[in-house]
Amino acid sequence: MRKLIVMGALVAALGTAVATTGTASAAEFEVKMLNRGTAGMMVFEPAFVKVAAGDSVRFVATDKGHNAEAIDGMLPEGVEPFVGKFNQDIRVTFEKPGVYGYKCKPHYGMGMVGLVVVGDPANADQAKAAKHPGKAKKVFAELFEKLDTTTTAAK
Question: Model confidence over 51-102: pLDDT tens digits?
Fold first, then answer.
């Protein structure tokens, strides 16, 4: 009986060692699409997410009337833009390092925008140069300030 218990413990320990030393699995982050959040009306929460290459972000249609889609000029070179359907979740895997700007199409001018930063934000200057309507300009200025702060702190 004692041999059986020891054997079971060994198998469990070996299984744990394999699980922790195997290839790391990619993480999934969640961004909610909200009519009202801690940052105000018509927001993504959180609006700023830093991830590693290979990680995914699931944009959750918490409230109705929203979508998540990439903004032209705010993607790393060669990346296909993503466009989510209204009132539906969309999961996006971010493979290439850089800055990804996104919006809710009907609430773009109201500032319903966000940034996903993957590793090195090499295209940050290009993304900062993109033009935005209404309140989106102000929100992006705040998000890029966060990016600059986190990038400087990492150096």
Answer: 999 999 999 999 999 999 999 999 999 999 999 999 999 999 999 999 999 9
The pairing of strands 98-103 and 113-118 is antiparallel
The number of beta carbons lying within 10 Å of the beta carbon of residue 142 is: 13
CA distance linking residue 149 with residue 15, whole number of Å: 41
pTM of the model: 0.82
The helix (run of H) or strand (run of E) holding residue 51 is strand 48-51
Here the tokens at position 35 are 């009519």
Give the dihedral sign, CA 20/24/26/30. Answer: positive
Edge-first strand order for the sheet with 98-103 is 48-51, 113-118, 98-103, 69-70
Tokens encoding 12: 């469990």
Q: What's the token pair of residue 19? A: 């699980």
Any idea which residue has 């969309």 for tokens? 90
**How does pLDDT run across 97-125, given as a tens digit for each residue?**
999 999 999 999 999 999 999 999 999 99
